[in-house]
Amino acid sequence: NVKYMFGIVGVPVIEIAIAAQVAGIKYVGMRNEQAACYAASAVGYLTGRPAVCLVVSGPGLINTLSGMANSNMNCWPLIVIGGSSDSNQETMGAFQEFPQVETCRLYSKFSARPSSLEAIPIVIEKAVRTSMYGRPGSCYVDIPGDFVNKLVDSSEVRQVNTSERYPACCLPRPISLADPLEVQKAVAALKKAQNPLIIIGKGAAFSQAENNIRRLVNECGLPFLPTPMGKGVVPDDHPFSVAAARSSALLHADLILLLGARLNWMLHFGLPPRFQPDVKIIQ
């Protein structure tokens, strides 16, 4: 599931980086944790599977927060693993001690610290799965320093990949389909529209829906407008592209079909005077 790891090694995560490489994960050493986190985020966006950002405690973890927030807001799968103080030194003023789990909850879908060595596989599996399932985003796993070199009886480890509950780590993310009745309503609305417009966002690119969207545009003759991160789903030089007349297309559309896009600041929140007051939105 995870093929790439970016980070800066140091106490207590050196052995984690070594173990990852032994397991076949490609480790890329970086010079700054922020850059490492952005690099891992980019892999998540391009592949649809999370990469890992591995960092040390305290300042190392703090430097990743902008990358975590960026990944979470852009819906890109990402796993951040941070070393932390030993479990028996918590709240005692340990080296670079910081409330890492609590802090990362603001910038992630999932943030946890395994309670024991035996629990690590379950926590990692949940982090990987959560980063991809539903609306993708960043997840954080906190690893106490004393866990890194501890030994545990393998028979006591909760093996995810042999469990009946988790037959594989991880199964492909579920595909959600729209209600057929709602699809029929959308088709009927498109047929009635005088000036329909498709807006293609980065969600369409992330979902690799380019073939279906190109077929929709070509067979129905619908004009389309890509957002900056939606470019390339349908070629910019396509005859139905209205990117060169963006403002006019938005203003005169009486129905807009949003595909993997949000009505945020980039699309003027879908409000007048950029849009018609009575424009219909299908999302």
Automatic annotation (TrEMBL):
Coiled-coil portions: none
Cofactors (names): thiamine diphosphate
Alphabetized GO MF terms: lyase activity; magnesium ion binding; thiamine pyrophosphate binding
Keywords: Lyase, Magnesium, Metal-binding, Thiamine pyrophosphate
Positions of the Thiamine pyrophosphate enzyme N-terminal TPP-binding domain: 1-101
Stored Gene3D superfamilies: 3.40.50.970, TPP-binding domain (3.40.50.1220)
Entry-linked Pfam families: TPP_enzyme_M, TPP_enzyme_N
Domain Thiamine pyrophosphate enzyme central stretches: 183-283
One term under GO cellular component: peroxisome
GO BP term (any one): fatty acid alpha-oxidation
Name of the protein this chain belongs to: 2-hydroxyacyl-CoA lyase 1
Organism: Aquarana catesbeiana (American bullfrog)
